[in-house]
Specification:
alpha/beta; 2,3-Dihydroxybiphenyl 1,2-Dioxygenase, domain 1; four-stranded mixed sheet; 8 strands
Length: 153
């Protein structure tokens, strides 16, 4: 291996081995999508992109990002939400203060896509972007793994 330096990132207190690095989505209005995510996560920055062949960008921080692509005009950009069809139903983000995230999104004109879920060990909020893509935001109220992952809330 030579002199290669291996860096192992400690993701959290539980020494998490895997995390979601990014989600890749296609949207009707890339600027509006950037606005949605920057409203939820003001610290996100554009990490890179390209406008020559196909308009796309990466928006996030040093550890996670959303890859956003502009839909091609005329290829059926109409979104019909249907969880019975194959596809991604939503992407979820763990946040430290769900009330702040929800208030920023509401103040930004976004609407809840599903009622707030107040549970014993977590709070969940669902918001949709202007294309109807659903995003879940979760604040855990416990550090105990069994409580965080409980379905009996």
């Amino acid at each position: 291996m030579g002199n290669k330096k291996i860096i192992i990132m400690n993701l959290n207190k539980a020494n998490q081995k895997v995390y979601l690095e990014h989600a890749n989505i296609t949207v009707n209005d890339i600027k509006e999508s950037v606005n949605f995510f920057k409203t939820a996560f003001p610290h996100f920055i554009v990490r890179g992109g390209d406008e020559e062949l196909k308009h796309w960008l990466h928006l996030g921080d040093d550890y996670t990002y959303i890859a956003i692509q502009q839909a091609v005009e005329g290829l059926g950009n109409t979104y019909t939400k249907n969880y019975d069809r194959i596809g991604i139903n939503h992407v979820a983000f763990v946040v430290s203060n769900i009330e702040e995230v929800a208030n920023r999104l509401l103040d930004g004109g976004y609407k809840r896509d599903y009622p707030t879920q107040l549970e014993k060990f977590r709070i969940r909020e669902y918001f949709a972007d202007t294309d109807g893509n659903e995003f879940e935001f979760i604040e855990y109220l416990s550090d105990v793994i069994e409580e965080r992952n409980s379905f009996n809330n």
